[in-house]
Amino acid sequence: MKGSKILLVDDEIVFTTNMSRLLVNRGYQVTAVNSGDAAVKELENDDFDVVVLDLKMPGMDGIATLKEIKKLDLFTQTLILTGHGSIDSALDAVRLGAYDYLTKPCEIDDLVSKIECAWQKKDEHIKEEIQENVQKIIESPHSVFDLYPSKDNNPLASPNKIGARNHLSPAPLFFDKIFGR
Fold first, then answer.
1. 83 with 151, same domain?
2. Residue pLDDT, tens place only, 2-36
3. How many domains is the chain partitioned into structurally?
4. Residue 105 to residue 96: CA distance in whole angstroms
5. 40-66, pLDDT tens digit by residue?
6. Contact by Cβ (8 Å): 103, 84
7. E strands, 48-128, in order
8. Are 64 and 149 part of one and the same domain?
9. Would you say 92 and 119 are in contact if contact means Cβ atoms under 8 Å apart?
10. Domain range holding 76?
11. Is the Cα torsion angle 3, 163, 57, 38 positive or negative in sign?
């Protein structure tokens, strides 16, 4: 979706600079970093819809970075970029939870198409989680306290959870009043 936040991770500075410019011109918000460590730090501090991740990087490579991203349990999708000779590694990344992969060099239209599909997958995942939570609350209204334990430990106030950042959802405060918590 246009306006989506993209984290572009590749050690090739020329590639990230050029690809960022092309994606921005197509309406995306792009943050580019040049290492796996920098990607993890960005993801800990900001929400992204799609991560475009190169497999071959010095230091923390793409597979290690993907594993760290998965540990963060974010509402984001990861798209792998790989050279022609490393298709097996890209397939390993997909088995580890990446959305899909593209071989480099890639056409911007191919990348945009994959980003759009990854964004749709992310959107579906969020909708499913919301539906599951609503169903739990309908079945047992007290379960809202399990889903949203307190205003100080609100999962909606944590990074990357359904897009709500640095503010509290009114639902736990409302239920605190109803149930006298």
1. no
2. 778 999 999 999 999 999 999 999 999 999 999 99
3. 2
4. 23
5. 999 999 999 999 999 999 999 999 999
6. yes
7. 50-54, 77-82, 100-103
8. no
9. no
10. 5-122
11. positive
